Amino acid sequence: MFEHLVLQAATRFGRSAPILDNRQFSALMAHSWPGNVRELRNVADRFVLGLLSSDFGLSMSRVEAGSNLPEQLEQFERAVISDELRRQHGDVSATAKALSVPKQTLYDKLRRLHITSDRFRTDE
After folding, report:
1. What does the angle CA 52 – CA 9 – CA 64 come to, to the nearest 5 degrees?
2. CA dist., res. 37 & res. 2, Å (int)
3. Would you tell me which of 68, 79, 122, 124 could form a disulfide with 50, CB atoms 3.0–4.6 Å apart?
């Protein structure tokens, strides 16, 4: 069921579906899922968006995880920008165009989020 929800989330967010590793699978299986499918869907969404720790943070409460809305938005923004920079091999102009934001806005976000485009460059 989790795989199905991940594929739905990937389609909804226009991202590729990440692959579940053994530790993550174990964390999913060990969790009691008090929120049932709704909670599982939320974890799948956050997994696709790259907002979870390697064990999905299932052992932590929401307060311990420290994920208030501004932090979640910042993590999401960082993940989206980083993923696109990776796809564009560190090219900021191409990334700005792909994300439909002005290049200066992207530079401001890179500075605020402490992301360096150089780490995504590849020698082709």
Report:
1. 25
2. 9
3. 79
